[in-house]
Amino acid sequence: MGQTSTRTESIAGSEGADAALRFARRVHLGQHRKQTGGQFVEHPIAVAALLAAEGCSDDVLIAAYLHDAVEKTPVTSDEIRLRFGDEAAAVVDALTEDASLEEYAERKRALRSQVLAAGEVPVLIYAADRLANMRDWLSLPPEQREPCAGRLETTLPERLQLWAEDLDELTRFDPELVFLAGIQVGLAELRRGSGGVAPGA
User: Fold this and answer.
1) Mean pLDDT of the 94-121 span
2) Is the pLDDT of residue 47 over 90?
3) In this predicted structure, what is the pLDDT of residue 178?
4) 117 secondary structure, DSSP code
5) Is 116 domain-assigned?
6) Is residue 10 part of a domain?
7) DSSP H stretches of helix in 28-144
8) What is the CATH number of the domain that holds 151?
């Protein structure tokens, strides 16, 4: 992904990030999260907030706000490129699932491999995305988590297994990657809340 910096001294007043946020609010308008029922745009906002708290650069925050736009809306990669540049489009492409893969776990594993091959910035956003997703699941009462999995066309044990794989693969990519500790804690809490469902069960 070139030499894009993931750090900056300040993100206050960033026109690029503000424009990406406005764009995300517009294109995700009317969409809701299957996990929580909340407005979908709150998810990319949560991902960007995690990254901003780590001092990530404007370029990273732009891609974070946009990371689901191609996958979840009619927006194309070319439109992202035209509005936000080649780097943002390349990162969003790396974070976009292959819709031709019908099976949930296959699609998620293919996405993970794609992200890991794409380099530091997509991996950083992916890690923040994992943590934000886990927090959504943790906001649900334990008895609502299996029905939530059903809405996503998976099962809770499968989802837990995929998160465990994420943790392993992200740690292998960079043992110092931010968000690893949060993912590990979130996974442990979700396993406890599932009544001791073991990974791969």
Assistant:
1) 97
2) yes
3) 96
4) H
5) yes
6) no
7) 42-53, 58-66, 69-72, 77-84, 86-94, 104-118, 120-138
8) 1.10.3210.10
